[in-house]
# Entry
Amino acid sequence: MPINTKTMNANQRLVSFFLILVLGLAWIFASADKTGTSTEGLIPAPQKGFLAPDFELKTTAGETVRLSDLRGQAVLINLWATWCPPCRAEMPAIERVYNEYKDDGLVVLAVNMTYQDSFPDIAPFVEEYGLTFPILLDETGDVGSAYQLRSLPSSFFIGRDGVIEEVVIGGPMAEALLRTRVEEILK
# Structure
């Protein structure tokens, strides 16, 4: 009986194709990252009800501020940069609300993302907006990382017990919302 080489070559190609396909799928399955679906060991983003991550930063005046030293006071942490248009837009409202409530125990910590910003631009920015609250310098990005910064500006309203009561990502924040959130953390 004669051997049909065309049929044999077609069969060999088909077997080779399936063998390569099976080996390829086996390799993909074996090398898949099985840890990618687990949330074990991940630190959740600071959010309402969480203790605010502590930090220590220098101000533009060279003073050191540690968040945990401010327990007993209501704190607004605002993460910002000079190049950020929404940050620029909401700063006057933050200054007005700060001046209105500072005697009631409100502390505003304006944390400049100095690692993403230009240090020489900070002083003219502060002067332009007449800011009187402390400007802290996050030169290494540690605070941005601890607060899992996703967008500027980002504001964290922290109660007197050190617990985050509200988080506002993005902006500019309306002055009415700012005032409402501040009044809530001052209670």
Observations:
- The chain has two domains: 1-31, 56-186.
- The longest strand covers residues 74-80.
